[in-house]
TrEMBL record:
SUPFAM superfamilies in the record: Aquaporin-like
Protein's UniProt keywords contain Metal-binding: no
Location relative to the cell: Cell membrane
Entry protein name: Aquaporin
Bilayer disposition of the protein: Multi-pass membrane protein
Keywords, in A-Z order: Cell membrane, Membrane, Transmembrane, Transmembrane helix, Transport
Family of this protein: Belongs to the MIP/aquaporin (TC 1.A.8) family.
TM annotation in the entry: 20-37, 49-70, 91-114, 134-153, 165-188, 208-232
Superkingdom of the source species: Eukaryota
Any Pfam family matching the protein: MIP
InterPro entries reported for this sequence: Aquaporin-like (IPR023271), Aquaporin_transptr (IPR034294), MIP (IPR000425), MIP_CS (IPR022357)
Length: 267
């Protein structure tokens, strides 16, 4: 399989159909919602990991349902870089998305910080469990980024049209799954921008690199693995008399009659 990469100059110039700047704002808005409500749940969880998991998962679900058609609702540099690695988006679009994601994360966390000031000291900042070393934390975040991007590629596969209807729910539940499994170890970031926002507002940068390297490495690994080995086969329609009888025989039992069409799988 050959990957095709694009710089994306035409998108910056505003070529019709690209809508780059609208998409960039959508990314800003989407992760604003994610950090505001997800971290808000952290401030009142009292150790209830289910509450935190559902808050982040539902935030992603809500964002995907509302801005998915505008930007694809990456709201996560690990997703953006994973798609870039597979040649699904242009370089410039990836850069603009990541910048917007970081600013949106900071804005969402800052808004929360203002509203909870005097109520709690916590803003849901991700930190490694004191019993873990940084490489264990890196491993957890790697697999969190991996499962998220693997799910994104699976439900957004252009050859699996039916799966797109459940994509927002599937991705949101994957975020919930990641939090349920790992939140007590690393805070279950799986999103570098999410951790960047809380790090900026709290001023706590301890082991921050883990939350960038881990999810992004996992996301790239997942994108390449899916693209090379798990992409669904496509089908094309050939108009030809050569396949007329074959198609009639194949469709006979199903009661379908398309005598001039033949679907064949492309490897």
């Amino acid at each position: 399989m050959a990957f095709t990469y694009s710089l994306g100059v035409d998108e910056i110039r505003g070529r019709p159909g690209t809508n780059l700047y609208k998409a960039v704002f959508a990314e800003f808005f989407g992760i604003f919602i994610l950090n505001f409500f997800g971290c808000a749940a952290c401030t009142q969880s009292n150790g209830d990991f289910v509450l935190i998991s559902l808050a982040f998962g539902l935030s992603v679900f809500m964002a995907a349902m509302t801005i998915g058609h505008v930007s694809g609702c990456h709201i996560n540099p690990a997703v953006t870089i994973g798609l870039l690695a597979a040649g699904k988006i242009s370089i410039f679009r990836a850069i603009f998305y990541i910048i917007a994601q970081c600013f949106g994360s900071v804005a969402g966390t800052a808004a929360l910080h203002v509203l909870v000031s005097g109520l709690t000291e916590s803003i849901g900042h991700t930190q490694l469990n004191e019993k873990l070393d940084v490489y264990q934390g890196l491993g957890f975040e790697f697999f969190l980024g991996f499962i998220l991007v693997f799910c994104v590629f699976g439900v957004c596969d252009e050859n699996k049209q039916d799966s797109r209807f459940i994509a927002p729910l599937a991705i949101g539940l994957t975020v919930t799954l990641g939090h349920l499994g790992v939140v007590s170890y690393t805070g279950a970031s799986m999103n570098p921008a999410r951790s960047f926002g809380t790090a900026v507002v709290s001023g706590d940068w301890l082991n921050h690199w883990v939350y960038w390297v881990g999810p992004i490495a996992g996301g790239v690994a997942a994108s390449l693995l899916y693209s090379l080995f798990f992409t669904a086969p496509s089908a094309k329609i050939i108009h030809s008399d050569k396949y007329r009888q074959v198609q009639q025989n194949d469709d006979k039992e199903a009661g379908v009659k398309y005598p001039d069409l033949k679907y064949i799988d492309e490897e």
